[in-house]
Structures are given as C-alpha cells and as structure tokens.
Amino acid sequence: EMAQTLAAGWKSANVWMHSAWVTSKGEKMSKSLGNGLSVPSVLAQKSAWVVRYALGGVQYRAMLEWSDQSLNEAQSAYDRISNFLERANRVIENQPDYAEVQSIDADNLPEDFTKAMNDDINVSGALAAIFTAIRSGNALLDDYAQNQNENQSNGIKSLIRTCVLQVRAMLDTLGLDPYSPQWRSNAQKSQDLGANNGASVEHKVLESLIANQLEQRAIARAAKDFARADAIRDSLTAAGVVIEDCAQGSSWHLS
To answer: Which CATH architecture best describes the domain 39-187?
Structure first.
C-alpha cells in the first residue's frame, strides 16, 4: 500500500503501520475470497464519519470484525456525540472555532485519554474516555437547565464550554471532530450537526417523530389536559428520550 501510494505521487500519511486484518464473519476480507466491499457500497449505507469511526474504533494490532452491527454501533456513537454537541450549542451559543480546538495540548485533555493514546494507541480506551467526558458534559447541561442562580449558571456554562473543547480536541486527535473542515465545508455556516454532515436518515426520522410528540404535548398542556401531556412525556422517557422544559419551550436529548 505504501509503495503504491507513493508511486502514484500521493503523500496520504506521515506514519505507516501494519495493522491486523479486517474480517467478515470470522474470515479475512480479501479479493480472492470475494467478501470485500467497495467504498461506494459502504457509503450508501452510512456516512463517511460513521465508516471512519467503525474502521478506527479498535487498536491497530487487533482484528477488526466488519458487520452491520459494527456500523450500527458507530452510528449510535455519532448520535451520542452529535446530541451532546447540539445540546451544548444551545447553551454556549457558539461552538469554539477549529483553531481553538487544535490549540488544546495533551496536558489539557483528560488523563485517561492521554494514557490510552500513549498505550500503543489504545483507541478503545481513548473512545471510552471521550464518552466519559460526554457523560460529564450532559450532567453539567442538566445542572444548567435546573439552576436558577445567574452566577452559578455562568460558572456551569464556562465548564460546559471547556468540556466541549476537550471532547472536540479528543475527537480531532482521531480525525473525528464533526466541526472540523474535513467534515464541514467552509460554506456551511449552520451550527446544526445534522445538515450535510452524515446525519443518518434514522436520526432525521427520530427528530421528526419527537418534534411531533412535543407539539402534541404542548397542545395538551395548553388545553390543561395534563394527564395526556404527562403520558406523552412518560412514553418518551421510557423510549430513552429526556424532555427539558424551559421558558422558551421544550427541548430533548437522548438519555
């Protein structure tokens, strides 16, 4: 691969490493076995971000089992990450620019992330550290939504922004920051992660269904039909959807 790439005049990587096999149903993927997949066929199923996550989600010495399940798990990871960043964006109002994200050095990242990356590029451990940070960030967002003290709210808001910076910097280390130029064109000004950035059809359908339920709940509350409003909220909660009410209306995120 290195010889072919360099002979073609491309410098696609600074470091080359020999990785373990990509397998399918326990067998090595190879042209001779006829179990390989073309890039267009894979991208027809999921976004490039999701495919990259699925391919890079294990340590390079470990076998990578390619399956619909691995793709679906990568899609779930994208949904969790984008959901957190979307929630945070409503609080901090503007995402940090990419230059600020890149300026974060290893000393300012969570210790469990840097330890994992220094442990022979233990990507699984690094991803676990990212989702630990996201859980902490979601907890801060919950605190912010419930806090009525302006000074305390400003302090929590600052912590949320720091958490966003760390999460994005860790993702960027793996080439997965959804706001980086490689995933977002310069012409795209929207801070909404969904547009043109690999949001799945399933995610868009989910947003539409939940928006409809929230609208029905708002109608029920306006009519003082609180039993129906509570029933809608309970059904969404049971499905793993957390509803947050505030003066501006209702918002949601996955639990």
So the answer is: Orthogonal Bundle (1.10)
